[in-house]
UniProtKB/TrEMBL annotation:
<dbReference type="GO" id="GO:0016614">
    <property type="term" value="F:oxidoreductase activity, acting on CH-OH group of donors"/>
</dbReference>
<feature type="binding site">
    <location>
        <position position="80"/>
    </location>
    <ligand>
        <name>pyrroloquinoline quinone</name>
    </ligand>
</feature>
<dbReference type="GO" id="GO:0016020">
    <property type="term" value="C:membrane"/>
</dbReference>
<feature type="binding site">
    <location>
        <position position="130"/>
    </location>
    <ligand>
        <name>pyrroloquinoline quinone</name>
    </ligand>
</feature>
<keyword id="KW-0634">PQQ</keyword>
<feature type="binding site">
    <location>
        <position position="174"/>
    </location>
    <ligand>
        <name>pyrroloquinoline quinone</name>
    </ligand>
</feature>
<feature type="signal peptide">
    <location>
        <begin position="1"/>
        <end position="20"/>
    </location>
</feature>
<dbReference type="InterPro" id="IPR017512">
    <property type="entry name" value="PQQ_MeOH/EtOH_DH"/>
</dbReference>
<dbReference type="GO" id="GO:0070968">
    <property type="term" value="F:pyrroloquinoline quinone binding"/>
</dbReference>
<protein>
    <submittedName>
        <fullName>Alcohol dehydrogenase (Cytochrome c)</fullName>
    </submittedName>
</protein>
<feature type="binding site">
    <location>
        <position position="269"/>
    </location>
    <ligand>
        <name>Ca(2+)</name>
    </ligand>
</feature>
<feature type="binding site">
    <location>
        <begin position="414"/>
        <end position="415"/>
    </location>
    <ligand>
        <name>pyrroloquinoline quinone</name>
    </ligand>
</feature>
<comment type="similarity">
    <text>Belongs to the bacterial PQQ dehydrogenase family.</text>
</comment>
<keyword id="KW-0732">Signal</keyword>
<keyword id="KW-1015">Disulfide bond</keyword>
<feature type="binding site">
    <location>
        <position position="192"/>
    </location>
    <ligand>
        <name>Ca(2+)</name>
    </ligand>
</feature>
<keyword id="KW-0574">Periplasm</keyword>
Length: 587
């Protein structure tokens, strides 16, 4: 928008009339517009790639702090957000559903919004938030009581506020909303409570619901207040009434492929975790037990909310391998338009962008036990003995056979986003090498109560590292290099045309690697664990990099033996902003 105004040589009145804040064009051009970051993912394809090369392999050693901002208060815990930068202001969300506007030049606070959360919210995996979205003069973010809020960019005043779902039933909200053609598109969280995953689209100006799309077969979608189409075919892949509490939470939000005009959302585990209860226990007819569209990626028409295609990564899922991980649209070295996604189940998939069809899959972690590979249709070749046992066959009827499965339920990769370099053609994937003892137990659905039917203990697979950042060639599935880290990685990755890969560790280090070799070129100790998502932009000819530091997230809560390994880490809550001063840029 700034460039547009500067180009106009008309009266100030006309400029005011033309000002529309962040436009659809701004969102579409976010990657190329290096003076602002107005989308989660640094572009709605979620490449997290900047064409900036001012900061590069030679001069990154001169990157220095410009300012730091504390989120303050006693509310710390995990800070998983990605900052946005627009019109001289940085916007960040914080733990406990807070949002801050910060002067991007000085680091001073302009305003803060603190959602008043009710008693009894049920976030499964820490009180985190993963970012906001900007459109027009508003900024949007979701809150832990499953609401979406629109705030005035300049003042932080509430413009509108709406309920996504009932927090008392276990719903919550943590993802960055996605804006496409004037619609605010959101998912939901709560897959461990027997909720039903859904995607909702609202008019960004008014908050009015335009369409809804449930992710579990049998549920009806809506369009303009009327029933539209059923998701899938009732009881095609789910037995009985289990689809009514079938999970498939869309908790990581989605991406947008402008070339095919498609929203891509992932759906989490089917509920409950115990797969033997979902029709996959006995020899079945057809694909009953696959439990669509849980553990799947789904392509959605942004105008109607109708499903265009789906790809299920883990049919009859039974290890909590949520299918939510981000789907990144990119062009491969051969000029083919592809999607890539690194699944919780340990496989890195490449799909066709026209129809979501399977192209290839390769492991991105070392010790996958649950499958022996992926067949030519994209379906896993199950290693049957590695399925947690059926409690109905247990002598006491309570605890099925315990198996050691890898990756652990927190995944070969969890929510933390990977990055794609248009320069190298490789993906930079934050992964973890860990497994778990897992077993099944009987369970019945109860509103607002955990609905798992499983127990588990996570264990490291290696003595010297769990975290593993890998450069992966998507054309071959081969690993180009690996950077090992003691603690599990839980933050996002960013890469730049300057040849750098940025990420942070739970031990507090913010690191820049050489994109070709994985060699560490620069690091800075931020004082608390990094589980946030870095960005970069330029101001007045200087390149800046920001990341939010603040340890937390699912690992310390659910990490079993791994949680013990990281319990010395300090909490925090600080935005760190670095810059390459002009006079040091050529060194
Ligand atoms: Ca899950």
């Amino acid at each position: 928008m700034k460039k547009f105004i500067a180009a106009m040589s008309v009266s100030a009145l006309a400029v005011t009339a033309a000002y529309a804040g962040v436009t659809e064009e701004d969102l579409a051009n976010d990657q190329a517009s290096t003076d602002q970051v107005v989308t989660n993912g640094m572009g709605r394809h979620l490449q997290r790639y900047s064409p900036l090369e001012t900061l590069n392999k030679d001069n990154v050693k001169n990157l220095v702090p410009a300012w730091a901002f504390s989120l303050g208060g006693e509310k710390q815990r995990g800070q998983e957000t990605q900052p946005l930068v627009y019109d001289g202001v940085m916007y960040i969300t914080g733990s406990y559903s807070r949002l801050y506007a910060i002067d991007v030049n000085t680091g001073e606070e302009l305003w803060q919004y603190d959602a008043r959360l009710p008693e009894g919210i049920l976030p499964c995996c820490d009180v985190i938030n993963r970012g906001a979205a900007i459109y027009g003069d508003n900024i949007y973010f979701g809150t832990l009581d499953a609401r979406i809020v629109a705030l005035d960019l300049k003042t932080g005043d509430v413009v509108w506020r709406d309920k996504i779902a009932d927090y008392k039933a276990g719903y919550s909200y943590t993802a960055a909303p996605l804006i496409v053609d004037g619609l605010v598109v959101t998912g939901n969280s709560g897959g461990e409570f027997g909720i039903v995953g859904e995607v909702q689209a609202r008019n960004a100006e008014t908050g009015e619901i335009v369409w809804t799309r449930p992710m579990i077969e049998g549920h009806m979608g809506t369009l303009n207040g009327q029933e539209s189409t059923m998701t899938g075919t009732l009881n095609a892949t789910w037995p009985g009434d289990l689809w009514k509490t079938g999970g498939g939470a869309t908790w990581l939000g989605g991406s947008y492929d402008i070339d095919t005009d498609t929203l891509i959302f992932g759906a989490g585990n089917p509920a409950p975790w115990n797969s033997w209860l979902r029709g996959a226990g006995e020899p079945t007819e057809g694909n009953v037990g696959d439990n669509l569209y849980a553990a799947s990626r789904v392509g959605i028409d942004p105008k109607t909310g109708d499903i265009k295609w789906h790809f299920q990564t883990t049919p009859r899922e039974g290890w909590d391998y949520d299918g939510v991980n981000e789907v990144v649209a990119y062009t491969d070295r051969g000029g083919n338009k592809r999607y890539a996604t690194a699944d919780r189940n340990g496989y890195f998939y490449v799909l066709n962008r026209e129809d979501g069809a399977f192209v290839s899959a390769a492991p991105f972690v070392k010790d996958i036990t649950w499958a022996n590979g992926i067949d030519e249709t994209g379906r896993p070749i199950f290693n049957e003995p590695n399925r947690p046992g059926n409690p109905a066959n247990a002598t006491d009827g309570n605890k099925g056979e315990v198996v050691f499965s890898s990756p652990s339920f927190l995944g070969g990769k969890n929510w933390m986003p990977m990055a794609f370099s248009q320069k190298t053609g490789n993906f930079y994937v934050p992964s973890n090498e860990w497994g778990m003892d897992i077993w099944n137990e009987p369970v019945t659905y109860k509103k607002g109560a955990a609905y798992l039917g499983s127990g588990f203990t996570i264990k490291p697979n290696y003595e010297d590292h769990i975290g593993s950042l890998k450069a992966i060639d998507p054309d071959t599935g081969k690993w180009v290099w690996e950077y090992k880290n003691d603690a599990p990685l839980w933050g996002g990755v960013m890469t730049t045309a300057g040849g750098l890969v940025f990420f942070g560790t739970p031990e507090g280090k913010f690191i820049a690697l050489d994109d070709a070799t994985g060699e560490e070129l620069w690091s800075f100790q931020t004082g608390s664990g990094i589980v946030g998502q870095p960005i970069t932009w330029e101001m007045e000819g200087e390149q800046y990099v920001s990341v939010v530091s603040g340890w937390g997230g699912a690992v310390p809560l659910w990490g079993g033996e791994v949680a013990k390994k990281v319990n010395y880490l300090n909490q925090g809550g600080t935005v760190w902003t670095f810059k390459l001063p002009k006079q040091l840029a050529s060194n």
